[in-house]
Design goal:
The chain has about 270 residues and is mainly beta. The chain has 3 domains: about 130 residues, Jelly Rolls; about 40 residues, no CATH class; about 55 residues, no CATH class. The protein is about 10% helix and about 35% strand. The chain has 2 helices and 24 strands. The strands form 9 sheets. The chain has a 5-stranded antiparallel β-sheet, with no helix packed on it. β21 and β22 form a beta hairpin. The longest helix has 15 residues. The radius of gyration is 21 Å and the shape is globular. The N and C termini lie close together (about 10 Å).
Length: about 270
């Protein structure tokens, strides 16, 4: 099993505008009624008006009249704490990211498209280029092969990215059925958590709370965690290097921020 502790990322460029179609930037002094949605490009967030107001107080600091309704369309795929998708209608979804540090893994979730192309460049030199087909068909018979329905691979992971600090990563999701979508991009240095045993039990108590808002999006309240029994402190011959404690720390961090634990050979994440 592997985990990818995510690094903070900011899009270097994106094919999605901000505001995107259907989004409106908040305007000071404009009259808003309950239910209106406005965005702030400074925070890349959407805000819903809860009480009619004509004012000059920015929604991000006016909790009496506004509530956070999630990220803008452009930034949805970079907010991994929710499941809102960045949507490109009728065209490919293309983003470029400059992590500014070494990474070796990428995870994409909430995908909808025909294919995903992942490229890495250092200056004008290409150092990585992979295209993954997202249209799948389970085929056991000739009839299924000829006439079976396609399904879309909604998540994928790659652990083979070259580790270069100056690389720019380009992600292209080609549309299917008119749209290209992505709900999350996770970049980082993967950590090997070892082999999964039967009926594994975590040795830590987590008190973070996960709930749903009225938009059916995940809402996380991060809280402290506590040890019950540190069963990984003695991990065998490599324990002199602190491997067991490293695994315990990485597992606890993954649980607390709701990252994803990934089986080595799997493309779909659990």
């Amino acid at each position: 099993m592997k985990a990818i502790p995510p690094v903070a990322i900011t899009p270097y460029s994106s094919s999605i505008a901000e505001p995107a179609g259907g989004e409106s930037v908040w305007v000071s002094g404009h009259a808003y009624v309950a239910g209106d949605i406005a965005i702030l490009t400074a925070t890349h967030r959407r805000y819903e008006c809860t009480v009619a107001i004509t004012g000059a107080i920015s929604p991000d600091v006016d909790a009496a009249h506004w509530r956070d309704a999630g990220p803008t369309n452009k930034w949805a795929m970079f907010d991994i704490k929710n499941k809102m998708q960045t949507v490109a209608t009728g065209t490919a979804l293309v983003v470029e990211i400059a992590p500014g540090r070494r990474i070796n893994s990428i995870c994409l979730r909430g995908l909808n498209g025909a294919s995903v192309r992942i490229e890495m460049h250092v200056g004008a030199a290409s150092i990585y280029d992979r295209t993954i087909n997202l249209l799948l068909r389970r085929t056991l018979t000739w009839s299924q092969y000829m006439y079976g329905a396609f399904r879309v691979l909604t998540a994928l992971v790659r652990f083979d990215l070259p580790m270069s600090t100056g690389a720019v990563i380009k992600i292209t999701v080609q549309p299917t059925a008119g749209d290209a979508r992505c709900a999350a991009v996770v970049l980082g240095m993967s950590e090997d958590l070892g082999t999964i045993i039967d009926e594994p039990v975590s040795d830590r108590l987590g008190f973070s709370k996960f709930d749903r808002d009225e938009f059916a999006q995940s809402v996380q309240a991060r809280r402290v965690r506590a040890d019950r029994v540190v069963v990984l402190r003695h991990a065998g011959p490599l324990d002199e290097f602190g491997i067991g404690e490293l695994i315990a720390i990485e597992l606890a961090e993954a649980q607390s921020v709701r990252d994803w634990l990934i089986n080595d050979g799997a493309q779909v994440l659990g």
